[in-house]
Amino acid sequence: MTVAAARHGVEAPAYVGTATLSGWLYDFGSYPGMVLGVPERVTGDVYRIPAALVPILDEIEAVYPGEAGLFVREMHDVSCGGATYRCIVYPVDASAVGELPQISGGDWVTYRRARDTNVA
């Protein structure tokens, strides 16, 4: 996200902290996909971003008004560091995950580090 902001001449996002959201995380290969509304938890980072970064993030996630895609943009409240933040999240529909591996523990960074180490 920081690289995308710099590439487009937009103010860099400010890291706020880590939060969890109700959902399952799946391995799409080079990126994760989150299905919301299930009893498991997904871990992610919370950033304060300038409004100018939102359309850039939409482009990265291929979210276009009036077009169906893999991701959708939604707003959700998350708790982080004792405060509640209204955050943009980009979940996928449950029908998109098929037989993809579910990421136990809901932490993409930890999972990918272990996955990529085991491949080598």
UniProtKB/TrEMBL annotation:
- What Pfam families would the database entry show? GGACT
Q: List the Gene3D superfamilies.
A: Gamma-glutamyl cyclotransferase-like
Q: Which SUPFAM superfamilies match?
A: Gamma-glutamyl cyclotransferase-like
The residues forming the signal peptide are none
In this chain the Gamma-glutamylcyclotransferase AIG2-like domain maps to 13-109
User: What InterPro entries has UniProt attached to this entry?
Assistant: AIG2-like_dom (IPR009288), GGCT-like (IPR013024), GGCT-like_sf (IPR036568)
Instruction: Show the GO MF annotations.
Output: transferase activity
**What is this protein's name?**
Gamma-glutamylcyclotransferase
